[in-house]
Write a structure and sequence with these properties.
By secondary structure, the protein is α/β, with parallel strands linked by helices. The chain has helices at residues 17-22, 25-40, 45-48, 64-73, 78-81, 83-94, 109-122, 140-148, 182-188; strands at residues 53-59, 100-103, 128-135, 173-180. The protein has a domain at 12-137 and 172-180: Thiolase/Chalcone synthase (Peroxisomal Thiolase, Chain A, domain 1, 3-Layer(aba) Sandwich). Helix 2 runs parallel beside helix 6 (83-94).
Length: 194
């Protein structure tokens, strides 16, 4: 379980505090982690502006946050509820010139986002790719729904893409990483993490 999902500095990302209230916590977490991933890779914002950089984000939807916000505050703003905007927020903030894609293939969303980012790098569509994922469960209703649908693993073991797979084991998390073709990274003197 992730703690402090309500802690977010909207002004850093040029987002008003009022708008930030409506932004799904998964989007807020990815904004923070995506920015940190660029920092860790040695890419300051000025180096990224106008870069051929794609953002590939895996989020399993629909998010519970829109439903919870409607229950408590009325109709939530569309930009806060839209997962598609989650990938575009960081691209817009950093002035990236590449695709900003949201991938929702259920529990494989982040893996598929990574695959698409690698294909774009190999195909020369982008020079750099930010890939990541975020998943939060904000209420017990989601777990209850998955249980009723028979989706949860009765053994509690995740065996993704295995013949012995017997369901999913939900978890929360957020992650982001920067990808680049190895030859380009070596040429540019980038920090390479193994």
């Amino acid at each position: 379980r992730l703690d402090d999902i309500d802690c977010f500095d909207p002004l850093f990302f040029n987002i008003s505090p009022a708008e930030a209230e409506w932004i799904d916590p998964q989007q807020r977490l990815f904004l923070e982690e995506g920015y940190k991933a660029f920092e860790d890779a040695g890419y300051p914002p000025q180096k990224l502006s106008d870069a051929r950089c794609g953002v590939y984000l895996g989020i399993m939807g629909p998010s519970e946050y829109g439903w919870l916000a409607q229950q408590q505050r009325g109709a939530a703003e569309i930009t806060g509820r839209s997962e598609a905007i989650a990938a575009a927020r960081l691209a817009y903030f950093l002035n990236l010139k590449g695709p900003a894609l949201l991938v929702d293939t259920a529990c494989s969303s982040s893996l598929v986002a990574t695959h698409l980012a690698c294909q774009a790098l190999r195909g020369g569509e982008v020079d750099v790719a930010l890939v990541g994922g975020a998943t939060l469960y904000l209420s017990p209703e989601m777990y209850m729904s998955m249980c009723k649908a028979g989706m949860l693993s009765p053994t509690g073991k995740c065996r993704t893409l295995d013949n012995a797979a017997d369901g999913i084991v939900p978890g929360e998390g957020v992650g982001a990483l920067v990808l680049k073709r190895l030859a380009d990274a070596e040429r540019d003197g980038d920090r390479i993490h193994g």
